[in-house]
Amino acid sequence: MKYIVILGDGMADYPLDELGGKTPLEIARKPYMDKIASMGKIGLVKTVPDNLSPGSDVANLSVLGYDPNIYYTGRSPLEAASIGVDLSQGDASFRVNLVSLSDEDKYSEKTMLDYSSDEITTKEAQIIISDINEKLGNEYLKFYSGVSYRHLLVWHGCDTGYELTPPHDISGKKISNYLPGSPVLTELMVQSHEILKTHPVNRDRYERGLKMANSIWIWGQGSKPNLPSFYEKYKVKGCVISAVDLVKGIGICASLDSISVEGATGNINTNYDAKAKAALSALCDSDFVYVHIEAPDECGHRFETANKVKAIELIDDKIVRPIFETLTSQNIDFSILVMPDHPTPLSLGTHTKDPVPFALYRTGDNNSGSTYCEKNAKGGLFIEEGHKLLDYIFRRMI
Questions:
Q1: Residue that finishes a domain, picked among 222, 256, 276
Q2: Using CA atoms, how far apart are residues 246 and 255, in angstroms rounded to an integer?
Q3: Which residues pair with 97 in a beta bridge?
Q4: pLDDT (tens digit, 9 = 90+) per residue, 22-34?
Q5: Do residues 282 and 163 lie in contact, with contact meaning Cβ atoms separated by under 8 Å?
Q6: Which DSSP helix (H) or strand (E) runs through 177?
Q7: pLDDT tens across 254-289, in order?
Q8: Which stretches of the chain are assigned E, i.e. beta strand?
């Protein structure tokens, strides 16, 4: 039996007036997700415990079978694992976004214009982070470049007990009420603005009509995680396929193979075809593959309704369809699970803790059920503890 999870990050949503009171999942043309739901099983799963924030870190840990109340130690350490940064005991790792702030003179009076600096390119970001590290790094503080706007700060000998705010939660808001409780971290952000407001990369971006990456934003702190291996839990060899360091890092920490795909971007223009091909290739040697697509989440944060619908349709056509059709035509027994990690409602622009709809099909299923959307999932199964979903699937308990 082959096991495939296709996770559309942030795919779930609330009904929208502009969509006639429907959600993007209801509006999108997605015949293969609907086939999986109607022939197999559909339901809701609670991926975020009530006591934790609804981040992709918590939710993806849960979907991969790890109880966040036991194993969650912060977002940035998972990304550090993907980048190849080996944290020591006593190290605190922080996510560093390159953001676009408004141009008020006083830093605290600025507004968060864009948490991703117009999705700055990795090449541009590497130059900026290198210069930031040269000017602001020292024997205790070191910056590491990641992908696009997503980067890393390691603070040696620091605790993680700060109240820090994700920048995508404050889009369009003044930052004064969301600055770090740490004077050190706040000063790093202020100094970064002085460095970046006239940086050559930003001068070039300004001339091209793009938002400038004129500050860093520090958040998502944590310490080194300690996950038992996925094989140890399920006796299944597997891999993750994702464009984002967070999900790659969870896979690496779980001793899953992390497969890089050329052209995978973490936005709507990602290389869907290559992800599907990589998944099918991986299934020749592995029995489990976790295909993560970030695009719906990015569209939700950016309030892009049409693009969120389009992202769902692309996932269905470019990833779900070829995987389903190929395995079926080759007479391979498989289980395929389609779901989000959390909702990213377009009306809010950030994550929520609502249970998310899942659809599960196994070879041989031939039910006549519902199409795949939030409303229909409410009439199906309910899994209260998200980290148990894979347990149920591997043990054929649902």
A1: 222
A2: 14
A3: 150, 217
A4: 999 999 999 999 9
A5: no
A6: none
A7: 999 999 999 999 999 999 999 999 999 999 999 999
A8: 2-8, 41-45, 91-101, 112-114, 141-147, 150-156, 215-222, 238-241, 257-259, 288-293, 334-339, 356-362, 381-383
Burial of 353 (0-12, 13-18, 19+ CB in 10 A): middle
3-class secondary structure, 218: strand
Tokens linked to 265: 């971007």
Residues 48/58, Cβ–Cβ less than 8 Å: yes
Distance between CA atoms of residues 161 and 180, nearest Å:
11
Phi, psi of 321 (to 5 degrees): -55, -55
Helix axes 245-253, 56-63, angle to 10 degrees: 40
- Domain of residue 53, residue span: 2-72+227-394
Question: What letter does residue 319 receive in the DSSP assignment?
Answer: I
| Domains identified in the chain, total number | 2
How many Å apart are CA 245 and CA 82, to the nearest integer?
Answer: 5
User: Do 211 and 238 reside in the same domain of the chain?
Assistant: no
Distance, CA of 391 to chain centre:
22
The CA-based angle 106-212-245, given to 5 degrees, is: 110
- Mean pLDDT of all residues in 350-360: 98
Q: In which residue are the tokens 């008020």 written? A: 104
What is the distance between the alpha carbons of residues 144 and 129, in angstroms, rounded to a whole number?
7
Please list the residues that pair with 240 across neighbouring strands: 258, 290
Q: How many Å from the N-terminal Cα to the C-terminal Cα in the chain?
A: 16
Cα torsion through 106, 112, 117, 118, rounded to 10? -130
The SS3 assignment for 244 reads coil
Asked if residue 107 and residue 253 are part of one domain, the reply reads: no
* Predicted confidence (pLDDT) per residue in 179-217, tens digit: 998 999 999 999 999 999 999 999 999 999 999 999 999
Q: Which helix (H) or strand (E) holds 316?
A: none
Residues 6+ apart with CB under 8 A from 57: 72, 74, 75, 78, 220, 246, 250
Task: Collect all residues with Cβ–Cβ distance below 8 Å to 217 and sequence separation of at least 6.
Answer: 96, 97, 98, 99, 112, 115, 167, 189
CA–CA distances in Å: residue 164 to residues 55, 267, 311: 13, 25, 30
Q: Select from 95, 136, 57 the least CA-distant residue to 221.
A: 95
Among 43, 69, 238, which Cα is nearest to 58's?
69
Q: Which residue, 164, 190, 222, sits at the end of a domain? A: 222
CB 121 within 8 A of CB 98: no
In angstroms, rounded to a whole number, what is the distance separating the alpha carbons of residues 371 and 387? 24
| Same domain membership, residue 58 and residue 92 | no
Q: What is the DSSP letter of 318?
A: I
